[in-house]
Write a structure and sequence with these properties.
single chain, 165 residues, mainly alpha, 58% helix
């Protein structure tokens, strides 16, 4: 994760974490999973390569046109960023893609809400039917089957209500 702030407040450019057991010292998963947090505002020069430091500077300062990067890789990235920033067609396509993504996310949220609402209604109907069956059994002293007959519970659904009751 690359962050424009120092999450751990230790002025490091890089914080590296590996999976280890918190309860028993010396036990780790050894699954190769490593999490690295990069801080664009680090100060520990000895624990970072000059190339990574330049990349973090570029990430933080993409509009700095005067900086000359020593690393060829970072220089190429910087040139690509400038090309994209200066290309109106690319900018328009980027904005269109962004808008499409926002629309997709909005539609997905609305669809999720609708599904959740429908599911909630179905659960509410089931709970109401269970309450009605229970009330008929208690107030009229009907058997479970008689109460379901009175409420016209479909045969395929009856086992579900037997289990719920």
């Amino acid at each position: 994760m690359i962050m424009p702030f120092d999450l751990f407040r230790e002025k490091k450019y890089r914080y590296t974490f590996s999976m280890r057991c918190e309860e028993v010292e010396g036990i780790s998963l050894n699954d190769g999973a490593v999490r690295i947090f990069l801080n664009t505002h680090g100060e520990d020069e000895e624990n970072i390569t000059p190339e990574l430091k330049e990349l973090l500077y570029l990430i933080e300062n993409t509009n700095d046109r005067g900086r000359v990067f020593q690393s060829e890789k970072v220089r190429k990235i910087s040139e690509s960023v400038r090309t994209i920033q200066n290309n109106e067609e690319v900018g328009v396509r980027y904005m269109q893609a962004w808008e499409e993504r926002l629309m997709y996310e909005r539609e997905a949220r609305e669809e999720g809400r609708a599904e959740g609402h429908a599911e909630g209604q179905a659960i509410g109907k089931q709970e109401t039917l269970v309450d009605n069956i229970r009330n008929l059994m208690e107030s009229l002293h009907l058997s479970l089957e008689e109460a379901m007959d009175a409420l016209k519970v479909p045969e395929p659904d009856r086992q579900k209500y037997r289990t719920m009751l």
